[in-house]
């Protein structure tokens, strides 16, 4: 028994040509889809990068203002120690000045690091942004601890007319100094990371003027 393969109506050569055209069409369609997808992710990465840089620009301005207050904060802590050692027994400071320390924003990074777009950044760029935002998270922790120290110190000064309360001022000043030193060291390191990313400070990060020299003025008892 002999089997005969059916022949295309217009011959094998024409059939091969038709198949080739179909294959070529499929390849073109797949290539076009990849091009469209590539353009989509490029645009998504560009928008995300700009959003992060905008957020970091605001954070940098806040960081610079916070750091600019550090020297006068130490001056004020010295003044508080002198006051505690020399003020009359019944004296207190009802309304002690405190530094205005700005908090930081990380919401854009929080969204980005769990989104599909993050995988389309180069590994080197991902690491640079991750390290920078980790430094911001550390700065925020130092800042919160420092703010609590100043709040506790203000409360102690308000009731410093009680001897047992005044005795704790030296310890609270030491605590405030430690938190300030940690924040300052981390902040200087953060500035280096922001420089590496080419992020400049955005004045919009500080919507109200802060007098960074305010705590250098004489302590008001």
3D architecture notes:
With 221 residues, the protein is mainly alpha-helical. It has one domain. Helix content is 67%, strand content 0%. The chain has six helices and no strands.
Report a brief summary of the structure.
By secondary structure, this protein is an all-alpha fold. The chain is built from 6 helices and no strands.
Structure characteristics:
0% strand; rod-shaped; 221 residues
Helices and strands, with pairings:
Layout: H1 12-68, H2 70-86, H3 107-112, H4 123-158, H5 163-166, H6 169-197
Helix pairs in contact: 1-6, 2-6, 4-6
Radius of gyration: 32 Å
Overall structural domain count: 1
* Number of β-strand runs: 0
Number of H- or I-type helical stretches: 6
Alpha-carbon distance between the two ends = 117 Å
Q: Structural class, please?
A: mainly alpha
| Overall morphology | rod-shaped
* Main beta sheet: none
Please report which band the strand proportion falls in: under 5%, 5-15%, 15-25%, 25-35%, 35-45% or over 45%.
under 5%
Helix content: 55-70%
Low-confidence stretches: none
Q: Write down the secondary-structure element order.
A: HHHHHH
Q: How much is the average pLDDT?
A: 87
